[in-house]
Amino acid sequence: MGSLDAKPAETQELGIKDQAQLWNIIYGFGDSLVLRCAVEIGIADIIKNNNGSITLAQLASQLPIPIVNSDYLYRILRYLVHMNILEQETCNGGVDKVYSLKPVGTLLLRDAERSMVPIILGLTQKDFMVPWQFMKEGLESESTTAFEIGMGMTVWKFLEGHPDQSQLFNEEMAGETRLLTKTLFEDCGDAFQGLDSLVDVGGGNGTLIMAIYEAFPHIKCTLYDLPHVIANSHEYPNIEKVSGDMFKSVPSAQAVLLKMILHDWTDEECVNILKKCKEAIPKETGKVIIVDVALEEDSTHELTKTRLLLDIDMLVTTGGRERTVDDWENLLKRAGFRSHKIRPIRSIQSVIEAFP
């Protein structure tokens, strides 16, 4: 006879599932930092260079570490298997474990076309994780971000005064750009057809504008960013580099490109930027090409959580936001654009073309 206090099996199971859900959320930072460790020691590249599979002993002997604790390394590999980054098989009668990369693991290769290594290293660097500890304090202010509270200055002042961190940030942006570029051209290449000139506003080290020039060599391309960014940007043939402040002016061109720029800023600041862009393009044939998130709050799309997390990142770091389709329409109307169209692509971003 069962106890009167016994809970139905489904209720017990639900409780365990709830706990597991919260444990996974609590330790979510662990996934990021295990991944960072794997990237820092180059596990994916070593496996690739070892004909695609490797034993624990072989990997330990090839790591850029003088003395490797094999038990510690095994436990990290075990978790990477659990994360579906690595695949594990046994050989020699089950004595040795052999590790290989799952498809997602190829994104951890430093020389991969769509490598996510710069993004991983950029987003998990220590200084950029500190502000997340000040989210509660950030809620108490209408004008100060958690980054400012935690670091004592805006993210832009921080990057200007810390060249190494600025370089890492620009490498992260370049990595994100390489992840995007092929999809952008395949899904929305017609947005660049017929243009004779284009300026990439806030283009960082020039990764995207160079890719655009290589794909559309008839376009006169200009890279535009703050003086300290331009000073440290790559030298590209056929790309003009101009330094300045997008809040004050934008170089003239038939089209202006804003890739993941507007999500950094408040609505008022975005209207200001967009007005400067509108002044820089011809009224009849010009356009502003915005590559940014078009958030669908209730979507079941596999990237919805990432987009919502990116919105929290903007909340914490810059004071900006990710915007819905209605938000974009309101913003562009306020900036004086007569029409626009939004096209989703196979990426975290969409392409928004705004016409003066």
From TrEMBL:
Residues 132-338 form the O-methyltransferase C-terminal domain. This is Uncharacterized protein. The active site is at H263 (proton acceptor). Residues 23-110 form the O-methyltransferase dimerisation domain. Pfam families: Dimerisation, Methyltransf_2. Coiled coil: none annotated. Keywords: Alkaloid metabolism, Methyltransferase, S-adenosyl-L-methionine, Transferase. InterPro entries: COMT-like (IPR016461), COMT_C (IPR001077), COMT_dimerisation (IPR012967), SAM-dependent_MTases_sf (IPR029063), WH-like_DNA-bd_sf (IPR036388), WH_DNA-bd_sf (IPR036390). One of its GO terms (molecular function) is protein dimerization activity. It comes from Papaver nudicaule (Iceland poppy). GO terms for biological process: alkaloid metabolic process; methylation. PANTHER family: O-METHYLTRANSFERASE.
